[in-house]
Amino acid sequence: MTPLSERFPEISRCAVSELHRTRVIAAIATTFLIGACLLSITFPLKNSEDVLYKAALSVQALVLLVYGAARASGAVRAERQERTWDLQRLTPLTSFEIAFGKGVGAPLFAYFLASLMLPWVIAGCVAGKGTISLDMLLWDQACLLALAFFTISTGLLISSHTVERLSKPIAEILGALLGFFAAYSFLPLCGSKDYKSDPLVAYFGQDWHGHAWITLGALLFGLWAFMGAKWRIGRDLLEGGRLWHIPAFMAFLLIYQSGLKDNFYLIAMAPAIFVYLAALLNSESPEQWRKWLLGGRFLSNYAPVLITASLSYVLFAAFTVEFGLAYGTRDVHGLWRYPLLQSCFLLRDCAFLQLCRFSRIRRPETTALIFVGLSYALPFLVLNSFEKTELFYAFMPSTEPSVGALVNFLPGLLQCAVMIGIFLLAIKKRFLKETARSR
Amino acid sequence: MGAVMIEVDALRREFGDTLAVDDVSFNVEEGAVFALVGPNGAGKTTLMRMLAALLEPSLGTARISGFDIRERPREVHSLLGFLPDFYGLYEDIPVYEYLRFFYLAYRLPGGLASRRIEEVLAQVGLLEHAGKDIETLSRGMRQKLGFARALLHDPKLLLLDEPAAGLDPGARQEMQALLAGLALKGKTIMVSSHILAELEDYCTHVAMLDRGRLIFAGSLAEARRRLPAGRRLRIRVASGIETALSMLETMEGVSHLERRSTDAVFDFAGDDTATAGMLKALVGAGIPVIFFGEVAGTIQDSYVALMKDSR
């Protein structure tokens, strides 16, 4: 028993389950065969210095990113499906111990396969006769590990959020797709001879080479994804939420985006996307809303994520506009209005989504998505076909410099107010009696 | 017995529009063996999951050994061993590893793992199967393994949801003996079951649920006293049971008359004088009565009567 397995028993359980003798022998034999095949294919090729290296690294990346993310995406979902989750919840394991144990334990076989491919990658580096430097090998491995951290953490996030309707195989497919896209972004970079100058990313005035940029981004976003998974697992353990999580994540996105974007006002798009995702993925039940409402404090740790996300978004949008106007971003198209306009439409959509969840609709998220899609798509198609694009602002967050700011804001504000009004009525109808009774 | 182990205070749980548990309140004393009975869908599993602090109540609360299930769920978890109405096993690992995982997860002293695991395996009669993969175990063995897991950290309270479901008569008897042994060691046990006759052998208290509502909670003796007015009598005769039956049929206050071999069992609404008169009439008619007495009501009888009343 090692200190690691004592602290994270999930790792030793997964080791017993994933790395039993037959599997280990089969894995060693398979990777040896794959390596031997790559060697026999690449050796006779002319100018083949780096082919073995790239091929072995590609196999390593696919195993780690695709298979690893798939395993992580099914980790919590599998426990829920096989009904072992409740039994884990009864133990004193904390959300961090469970999340870390699953992040390391579930993809254990992927780590093992990737480590078995490493000698072939090194062999490719040696066979490259100087075309692959040690520096590059280390950057490739660092980048791969950072991407693995990102995909596995995001897989865990998907898994911890999946509800009964989403089966384990579907969660695993989502994870595998994510891993595939990560591999797709990584593979063109690997083995690049002049990796230090191509491609360059200008970030807050500093030039970053592709490997460093991807490694940094993957580590930062991986960390947030891990925290998101830990938070969701903590909710199952009946640990209270943390009010600062979402605002902190939005602030991070703002800072992260603002280092890249030329258009200052559009940086508010990033938090908006998060709000949408959070609203859709979060399966807060009416019971949780009731708990929040009965708690009597508006900003408590039980505040639903929809509330904290929406409010944070509005505050950040206002801050962005204020900052942009105060510090002189030249704006001839009225783009400063965009974050605030989007706030209105976003709040409208979130209120509708929650309204659907409180209703008897069987698939509230799907219904809400259809509504949101249609509410934007139909006016867009109709107005576009009649060449009345100047009326977009009445139906979607669109800046219209030909009208005054108030007129531009009015349709969004009205729709938002109406939807929130209907939502409040629904809350009142549902919870008022019980609130009075419990007090 | 003495201190209260479980205090249930106006507990309520809704799932959408369905009311699963409706304002249920009762107490369970330390050392009690408490049976939770009711038809399917009565809310037994929901109630147990709330008491295990796995499911949040919609309203009301409960305290386990003084810890509120809403406020201190983690403390509640450490006090109890829970056997759910499903196995919840990791199929692809051996029995010993399954228990070792939970041993470590419960943060029990690392050096004593083997000893404790062997102890609980011996307790449930699975020691010789320690090295077997869980997927090869029979239904009864799986249930025993779940039981072993629930006992691993030596909890003060055991919540057992349908522990005898799917077990053959032999395994049920073993389970019963195990529960009786644990009760003797002073554990508080709450057990839900449909097999009421078996509960009667080792339970001290009972709660009956119907459609989410508590219709009775108290000791077994109190439950028996809730039998409908009147008494259930049994008469055994040396011969002439047919004559005795036809006489009884005509007597006032006799109902639910049934023949069981040379016995007649029936409900009688009359008082003590009427009962004495009945015996006199039978003996006077030349029927050789060798037993005449009251039959104690079973928990099953109480259950049926209380269910009838509640509807």
Identify the notable features of this structure and list them briefly.
A: 439 residues; mainly alpha; 2 domains; two-stranded antiparallel sheet; 2% strand; B: 311 residues; alpha/beta; Rossmann fold; Alpha-Beta Plaits; six-stranded mixed β-sheet
Query: Count of helical segments of chain B?
Result: 11
Could you give the order of strands across the largest sheet of chain A?
Answer: 1-2
Averaged pLDDT of chain B? 87
Shape of chain A: globular
Q: CATH topology of the largest domain in chain B, what is it called?
A: Rossmann fold
User: Which pair of chains has the greatest number of interface residues, and how are they split between the two chains?
Assistant: A-B, 30 and 37 residues
Number of strands of chain A: 2
In terms of quaternary structure, the protein is: heterodimer
Q: Which architecture name of the largest domain in chain B does CATH use? A: 3-Layer(aba) Sandwich
What is the ordering of alpha helices and beta strands of chain B?
A: EEEHEEHEHHHEHEHEEHEHEEHEH
Uncertain runs of chain B are none
Total beta strands of chain B: 14
End-to-end distance of chain A: 52 Å
Strand order of the largest sheet of chain B: 6-7-8-3-9-10
